[in-house]
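Exam revision sheet. Question 4 asks you to relate a sequence to its structure. Input first:
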Amino acid sequence: MQPKYEYGSEVRLIRNVRNDGTYPGMEVGELLIRRGAVGCVYDVGTYLQDQIIYRVHFLDAGMTVGCREEELIDAQDEWIQNLFEFREKVVATKSLAINGEVIVKVGDLGEVQRVLREPGRILYHARFGERTLVVPESSLEAPPPDETPATDIEATG
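Answer key, structure tokens:
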């Protein structure tokens, strides 16, 4: 097992990293570093003798986080920042069909299940109703903000 990155290498995180319980002062599941962040390899070690773990210092965030090799790419490699994250609501900007049958209409609301990366583009597993489809980012947009006005509840009595 040879490490891909050396001490001092600049790397980019390709997955969101959340606290697995080993980062002090933060709740389990809390987002530590967002995908796309660039950091510097500070140390290289192993976990359970079969995974290389890099201690990466993310200067902009002021944090040092353990990252698995598959979560990193060289900082100079092509990077396209995705617009949506897991569980975010999205709206279809185009009709989506399977074998000519329209499954999702323009304006239908869905939810991102997974971010997929291909060279030069971003795709999503997006759930619309009972169907999960692979949808290019260009076919999705953020839903409009909730336009329901907040109402004040008056206390009586």
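Marking note for examiners. Residues 89-141 form a domain with the SH3 type barrels. fold (CATH 2.30.30).
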